[in-house]
Amino acid sequence: MQKGIIVKNISNLYNVETENNIFLCEARGKFKKSGITPAVGDRVQINSIDEQKGIIEEYTTIINPQKISGADLKLLILLKLYLYFQ
Fold first, then answer.
1. DSSP letters of 25-45?
2. Which of 6, 22, 37, 78 sits in a 20 to 30 Å window from 65, CA-based?
3. Residues 14, 56: contact at Cβ < 8 Å?
4. Running DSSP on this structure, what letter comes out for residue 1?
């Protein structure tokens, strides 16, 4: 498995940037059943299917801005920047 960060989301497809590549990924069905929706900025672990496609297997960090109030938005942005540059 490779660690990465979600950099783009269109519908059910996620662009996950790893150290070596950017993969077009789908989330495992277990996330949908649990009501978990990956979001841009989430750190994930993926299994690659080929050189361009993969599957999100698990989350290492969940940051979902849809669940955060407007007052906490600045803190969310700072946290995402901190995690991105770690």
1. EEE-HHHHHTT----TT-EEE
2. 22
3. yes
4. -
Q: What is the Cα–Cα distance from 34 to 73, expressed in whole angstroms?
A: 25
Residue 72: predicted pLDDT: 63
Alpha carbon distance 85, 67 (integer Å): 23
Tens digits of per-residue pLDDT, 57-85?
Answer: 988 766 555 555 555 667 767 777 877 77
Cα–Cα separations (whole angstroms), residue 62 to 20, 29, 49, 51: 22, 17, 23, 25
Residues forming a β-bridge with 45: 3, 58
CA 18 from centroid of its chain's CA atoms: 11
Predicted confidence at residue 64, as pLDDT, reads 57
Q: Is the pLDDT of residue 31 over 70?
A: yes
**In contact, 42 and 33? CB cutoff 8 Å:** no
pLDDT at residue 81 in the model: 80
